[in-house]
Amino acid sequence: MSESTKTHKSHAPRKLNFAVFICSTSRYEALQKGENTTDVSGDTVESLLTAAGHSVLFRRVILDDKAMIEHAVKSVLSNAGLDAAIFCGGTGVTHSDITIEMVSPFFEKTLPGFGEFFRRLSYDKMGSAAVMSRAVAGVAKGKALFCIPGSPDAVRISVELLISPEASHIVKHARE
To answer: What residue ranges define each of the domains in the chain, with the CATH number in brackets?
Structure first.
Protein backbone atom coordinates (compact mmCIF):
# COMPACT_ATOMS: atom_id res chain seq x y z
CA MET A 1 0.00 0.00 0.00
CA SER A 2 1.35 3.43 -0.93
CA GLU A 3 2.17 6.02 1.72
CA SER A 4 -0.56 8.36 0.48
CA THR A 5 -3.14 5.57 0.72
CA LYS A 6 -1.96 4.77 4.26
CA THR A 7 -2.29 8.44 5.19
CA HIS A 8 -5.78 8.73 3.68
CA LYS A 9 -6.95 5.57 5.44
CA SER A 10 -5.52 6.77 8.75
CA HIS A 11 -7.76 9.86 8.51
CA ALA A 12 -10.87 7.90 7.51
CA PRO A 13 -13.60 7.18 10.06
CA ARG A 14 -12.89 3.95 11.95
CA LYS A 15 -16.50 2.92 12.39
CA LEU A 16 -19.29 3.37 9.86
CA ASN A 17 -23.04 3.05 10.28
CA PHE A 18 -24.56 0.79 7.62
CA ALA A 19 -28.04 0.04 6.35
CA VAL A 20 -28.51 -3.40 4.79
CA PHE A 21 -31.30 -4.14 2.33
CA ILE A 22 -31.95 -7.70 1.20
CA CYS A 23 -33.66 -7.43 -2.20
CA SER A 24 -35.63 -10.66 -2.39
CA THR A 25 -39.24 -11.02 -3.46
CA SER A 26 -39.47 -14.60 -2.18
CA ARG A 27 -38.17 -13.73 1.30
CA TYR A 28 -40.29 -10.58 1.45
CA GLU A 29 -43.47 -12.49 0.53
CA ALA A 30 -42.68 -15.24 3.04
CA LEU A 31 -42.23 -12.66 5.80
CA GLN A 32 -45.50 -10.95 4.82
CA LYS A 33 -47.27 -14.32 5.21
CA GLY A 34 -45.70 -14.75 8.66
CA GLU A 35 -43.61 -17.69 7.51
CA ASN A 36 -40.31 -18.46 9.18
CA THR A 37 -37.57 -17.68 6.68
CA THR A 38 -33.81 -17.75 6.95
CA ASP A 39 -31.57 -15.02 5.64
CA VAL A 40 -28.08 -16.50 5.48
CA SER A 41 -26.76 -13.70 3.28
CA GLY A 42 -28.19 -10.95 5.48
CA ASP A 43 -26.81 -12.65 8.58
CA THR A 44 -23.42 -12.93 6.88
CA VAL A 45 -23.37 -9.26 5.82
CA GLU A 46 -24.24 -8.17 9.34
CA SER A 47 -21.72 -10.43 11.09
CA LEU A 48 -18.87 -9.48 8.74
CA LEU A 49 -19.54 -5.74 9.12
CA THR A 50 -19.77 -6.06 12.89
CA ALA A 51 -16.56 -8.10 13.02
CA ALA A 52 -14.84 -5.31 11.08
CA GLY A 53 -15.92 -2.80 13.73
CA HIS A 54 -18.86 -1.24 11.89
CA SER A 55 -22.49 -0.97 12.99
CA VAL A 56 -25.59 -2.11 11.15
CA LEU A 57 -28.23 0.42 12.17
CA PHE A 58 -30.94 -1.51 10.39
CA ARG A 59 -31.55 -4.40 8.04
CA ARG A 60 -34.66 -4.82 5.92
CA VAL A 61 -35.94 -7.36 3.44
CA ILE A 62 -37.54 -5.58 0.48
CA LEU A 63 -39.18 -6.61 -2.78
CA ASP A 64 -37.41 -6.65 -6.12
CA ASP A 65 -39.59 -3.66 -6.89
CA LYS A 66 -38.75 -0.31 -8.46
CA ALA A 67 -40.64 1.86 -5.97
CA MET A 68 -39.46 -0.06 -2.91
CA ILE A 69 -35.78 0.00 -3.91
CA GLU A 70 -35.92 3.70 -4.86
CA HIS A 71 -37.57 4.46 -1.50
CA ALA A 72 -34.80 2.53 0.27
CA VAL A 73 -32.08 4.52 -1.51
CA LYS A 74 -33.79 7.83 -0.73
CA SER A 75 -34.13 6.84 2.92
CA VAL A 76 -30.40 6.15 3.10
CA LEU A 77 -29.44 9.41 1.40
CA SER A 78 -31.68 11.45 3.71
CA ASN A 79 -30.54 9.74 6.93
CA ALA A 80 -27.74 11.76 8.55
CA GLY A 81 -26.89 8.83 10.82
CA LEU A 82 -25.95 6.50 7.96
CA ASP A 83 -22.59 6.36 6.22
CA ALA A 84 -23.13 3.48 3.80
CA ALA A 85 -25.66 0.96 2.53
CA ILE A 86 -25.48 -2.50 1.06
CA PHE A 87 -28.17 -3.71 -1.33
CA CYS A 88 -27.85 -7.49 -1.41
CA GLY A 89 -29.55 -9.41 -4.20
CA GLY A 90 -31.21 -8.56 -7.48
CA THR A 91 -27.92 -8.06 -9.33
CA GLY A 92 -28.19 -10.92 -11.81
CA VAL A 93 -29.51 -11.00 -15.35
CA THR A 94 -33.09 -12.18 -14.90
CA HIS A 95 -36.02 -9.90 -15.67
CA SER A 96 -36.69 -9.35 -11.96
CA ASP A 97 -33.07 -8.39 -11.15
CA ILE A 98 -33.45 -4.60 -11.00
CA THR A 99 -31.34 -3.53 -8.02
CA ILE A 100 -28.57 -2.07 -10.21
CA GLU A 101 -31.04 -0.16 -12.39
CA MET A 102 -32.77 1.37 -9.36
CA VAL A 103 -29.70 2.24 -7.24
CA SER A 104 -27.11 3.39 -9.80
CA PRO A 105 -29.06 6.47 -11.06
CA PHE A 106 -28.50 7.95 -7.58
CA PHE A 107 -24.70 7.69 -7.86
CA GLU A 108 -22.84 10.98 -8.09
CA LYS A 109 -19.70 8.96 -8.81
CA THR A 110 -19.44 5.31 -9.81
CA LEU A 111 -16.65 3.10 -8.47
CA PRO A 112 -15.97 0.76 -11.42
CA GLY A 113 -13.10 -0.92 -9.58
CA PHE A 114 -15.51 -2.40 -7.05
CA GLY A 115 -17.34 -4.47 -9.65
CA GLU A 116 -14.15 -5.26 -11.54
CA PHE A 117 -12.37 -6.60 -8.47
CA PHE A 118 -15.48 -8.40 -7.26
CA ARG A 119 -15.75 -10.27 -10.56
CA ARG A 120 -12.01 -11.06 -10.51
CA LEU A 121 -12.21 -12.46 -6.99
CA SER A 122 -15.39 -14.36 -7.90
CA TYR A 123 -13.68 -15.82 -10.96
CA ASP A 124 -10.96 -17.24 -8.72
CA LYS A 125 -13.61 -19.03 -6.66
CA MET A 126 -16.29 -20.02 -9.18
CA GLY A 127 -14.83 -19.68 -12.64
CA SER A 128 -16.37 -18.12 -15.70
CA ALA A 129 -19.86 -17.81 -14.19
CA ALA A 130 -18.49 -14.63 -12.54
CA VAL A 131 -19.22 -12.79 -15.81
CA MET A 132 -22.93 -12.85 -14.89
CA SER A 133 -22.40 -10.68 -11.82
CA ARG A 134 -23.26 -7.01 -12.17
CA ALA A 135 -22.00 -5.96 -8.72
CA VAL A 136 -21.49 -2.20 -8.58
CA ALA A 137 -20.74 0.58 -6.11
CA GLY A 138 -20.85 4.33 -6.04
CA VAL A 139 -21.12 7.37 -3.82
CA ALA A 140 -23.88 9.92 -3.31
CA LYS A 141 -24.33 12.67 -0.75
CA GLY A 142 -21.19 11.58 1.12
CA LYS A 143 -22.34 7.98 1.45
CA ALA A 144 -21.10 4.74 -0.08
CA LEU A 145 -23.67 2.51 -1.79
CA PHE A 146 -22.86 -1.10 -2.68
CA CYS A 147 -24.97 -3.49 -4.80
CA ILE A 148 -23.85 -7.07 -4.31
CA PRO A 149 -25.17 -10.50 -5.31
CA GLY A 150 -27.26 -12.38 -2.77
CA SER A 151 -25.37 -15.67 -2.61
CA PRO A 152 -23.47 -16.33 0.64
CA ASP A 153 -20.18 -16.77 -1.24
CA ALA A 154 -20.66 -13.46 -3.04
CA VAL A 155 -21.45 -11.75 0.25
CA ARG A 156 -18.26 -13.05 1.81
CA ILE A 157 -16.14 -11.95 -1.14
CA SER A 158 -17.65 -8.49 -1.38
CA VAL A 159 -17.95 -7.63 2.31
CA GLU A 160 -14.84 -9.33 3.65
CA LEU A 161 -12.41 -8.50 0.85
CA LEU A 162 -13.71 -5.20 -0.56
CA ILE A 163 -16.32 -3.38 1.51
CA SER A 164 -14.86 -3.84 5.00
CA PRO A 165 -11.31 -2.83 4.02
CA GLU A 166 -12.34 0.16 1.84
CA ALA A 167 -15.71 1.57 2.91
CA SER A 168 -14.25 4.04 5.40
CA HIS A 169 -11.70 5.22 2.85
CA ILE A 170 -14.47 5.65 0.26
CA VAL A 171 -16.69 7.60 2.68
CA LYS A 172 -13.77 9.85 3.67
CA HIS A 173 -13.25 10.89 0.05
CA ALA A 174 -16.97 11.08 -0.74
CA ARG A 175 -17.30 13.71 1.99
CA GLU A 176 -14.46 15.91 0.77
So the answer is: 15-174 (3.40.980.10)
